[in-house]
């Protein structure tokens, strides 16, 4: 049975998906020449070289795939897998006023469902479940969707991870999180090897942890529950793929629009279901209006509007 946790009622506005806004959760993969991000927000593009006899630009290492199944309790090795997810458009419910808290992401008016021209529409997407893959990154690559597709887009909904100590208050039993192997037999040399200054080298800095060579955004997120108060929702265009960092809490992919999107999904997996994917059901407080809800504003063509964060000046993607 999946674990559940109590959920506050919060309405979350949609943000533009850019590498800088998404960096704590993973990577946005896109051709920098076609980025939607305002110039001031763009990060330096990945290193590029000329390839294919000068007819191609090759961007190097556009996302980092991480396999940390060696830390899984089962010790069952993982292999790289590519699956295809054909994700149907989600049902949205009509907007109605609510006493839900506004999310901390953006200065939003919960009841404002018109843009300046009075022709935008607000609908609501309920988020009843989150999941994570503690030992692997997971990359969603949409196929057959263009940057300018106005009728079909996808939402990337993510939450930071609470510290493990805060998570214990939310649930009677700890969430299922495989823990790294604890080496029971440590030699005297192992024990002194972590002492600082080192008795062997006189080194004063702490020894590097297994993940210290990784960019902070790529490090595993820890065992805690999702930080629902800081959940965020980003709208992606067809020219963007997205990698969730290992252990990043995220909603199952949410397609908005007319037709399904085919995604090729690249990750590692070892076939042990609790190590490959962990779900948590969000249970709204019985006295609350609703649970976690993304406000999906769209213009008259169905294009999702950005209402918070970078490019939120009623920007139309
Ligand atoms: N993100 C999503 O839609 N689904 C997965 O992460 C999965 O592995 O089921």
Automatic annotation (TrEMBL):
Keywords: Lyase, Purine metabolism
Composition skew (Acidic residues), residue ranges: 108-118
Any matching Pfam family: Ureidogly_lyase
Gene3D superfamilies: Ureidoglycolate hydrolase
Superkingdom classification of source: Eukaryota
Quaternary structure note: Homodimer.
Name used for this protein in its record: Ureidoglycolate hydrolase
Gene source species: Lojkania enalia
